[in-house]
């Protein structure tokens, strides 16, 4: 039986609790135009779970009072919900929200009805964090579907053409996820490789590369089990536990919200149906953000994924230049 995450923390003299919230991460639903093997949301074209206008408005009303500085929109493909543009426009009108992030799969920008989405995002100064699991077609298509690499390159070129990745007001970051049951390599080395290859072969520039470890949750957990690799991968995560990553975990300063408005400590816990702090389910509009600092965080074995090696979060590696650390 694998050691529990809380026991590993205790053995290292560590505790995990919340700080004052800084990020409101809104998962607007599971609808997506892609079906990626590593997807922890189990998103796809046939999913019906999307945020409705009533929930959007209640979240906006909460943010009017809370004024968290960073809003992180994720999914699915966030752009596919009917109220995406309404949500972005209203968020941008609220004082205090310094940064709005769109976690974009790139290919959606080429789909019918979304052709003007790059200009919309630029007009509202939305930072783009884009999925790009490799700079070669073979690896990208294996993880995300045939033709996805070429579509992603075209989308990146379009974003560059309107200033993304070039204009300091329009940041463009890419996300690397490993293919298969392994940890990411060093983030700074991969970023250098990405920048060289994308610039030389496609004339593409971007700001930063984020390396994110695949967590054994939802579709990726199913892939691991179907390939007889679940236990092996979980043991790798446990053996690579790095205590230096705990302080920088994203769950400490993030409020994660589901398409139904319920709150969680992170998007992975949302998919595992583990409510914020391990308490009974609550909605965002029932939460006073000023009371969260010091509260417990719900944990389980998948949390080892965020503390393995250099660590992992929505902003990439936690220890930027760390090598994997064994227990």
List the helices and strands and how they pair.
Blueprint (H helix, E strand, L loop, with lengths): L4 H7 L11 E5 L25 H14 L3 E5 L9 H10 L5 E6 L12 H7 L2 E6 L5 H8 L3 H14 L10 E5 L10 H16 L6 E3 L6 H9 L3 H10 L14 E4 L5 E2 L2 H5 L56
Parallel strand pairs: 1-2, 1-7, 2-3, 3-4, 4-5, 5-6
Antiparallel strand pairs: 7-8
Folded structure, characterized:
With 327 residues, the chain is α/β, with parallel strands linked by helices. It has 10 helices and 8 strands. The chain has an 8-stranded mixed β-sheet with strand order 6-5-4-3-2-1-7-8. It is globular, with a radius of gyration of 19 Å. It has a single domain, classed as TIM Barrel (Alpha-Beta Barrel), CATH 3.20.20. Helix content is 31%, strand content 11%.
Care to count the β-strands?
8
Overall pLDDT confidence: 92
Instruction: Assign the structural class, choosing from mainly alpha, mainly beta, alpha/beta, alpha+beta, or little secondary structure.
Output: alpha/beta
Molecular shape: globular
CATH superfamily: Aldolase class I
**What's the CATH class label?**
Alpha Beta
CATH architecture: Alpha-Beta Barrel
Please give the order of strands in the largest beta sheet.
6-5-4-3-2-1-7-8
Q: Strand portion, in percent?
A: 5-15%
What can be said about the biggest beta sheet? 8 strands, mixed
Relative helix content = 25-40%
Please, how many helices? 10
| Quaternary organisation | single chain
């Amino acid at each position: 039986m694998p050691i529990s995450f809380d026991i590993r923390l205790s053995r290292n003299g560590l505790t995990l609790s919340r700080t004052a919230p800084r990020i409101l991460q809104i998962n607007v639903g599971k609808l997506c135009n892609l079906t990626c093997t590593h997807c922890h949301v189990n998103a796809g074209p046939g999913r019906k779970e999307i945020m409705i206008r009533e929930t959007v408005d209640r979240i906006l009303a909460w943010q009017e009072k809370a004024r968290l500085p960073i809003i992180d929109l994720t999914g699915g493909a966030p752009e596919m919900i009917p109220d995406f543009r309404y949500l972005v426009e209203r968020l941008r009108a609220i004082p205090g929200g310094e940064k709005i992030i769109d976690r974009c799969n790139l290919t959606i920008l080429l789909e019918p009805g979304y052709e003007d989405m790059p200009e919309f995002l630029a007009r509202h100064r939305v930072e783009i964090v884009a999925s790009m699991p490799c700079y070669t077609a073979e690896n990208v298509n294996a993880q995300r579907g045939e033709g996805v690499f070429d579509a992603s390159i075209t989308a990146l070129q379009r974003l560059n053409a309107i200033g993304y990745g070039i204009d300091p007001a329009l940041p463009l970051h890419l996300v690397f996820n490993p293919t298969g049951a392994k940890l990411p390599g060093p983030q700074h080395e991969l970023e250098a490789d990405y920048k060289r290859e994308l610039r030389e072969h496609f004339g593409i520039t971007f700001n930063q590369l984020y390396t994110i470890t695949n967590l054994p949750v939802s579709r990726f957990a199913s892939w691991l089990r179907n390939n007889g690799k679940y236990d092996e991968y979980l043991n790798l995560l446990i053996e690579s536990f790095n205590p230096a990553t705990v302080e920088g975990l994203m769950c400490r300063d993030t409020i994660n919200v589901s398409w139904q408005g319920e709150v969680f400590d992170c998007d992975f816990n949302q998919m595992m149906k583990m409510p914020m702090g391990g308490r009974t389910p609550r909605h965002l509009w029932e939460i006073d953000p000023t009371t969260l600092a010091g509260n417990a965080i719900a944990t389980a074995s998948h949390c080892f994924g965020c503390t393995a090696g250099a660590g992992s979060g929505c902003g990439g590696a936690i220890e930027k230049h760390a090598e994997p650390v064994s227990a």
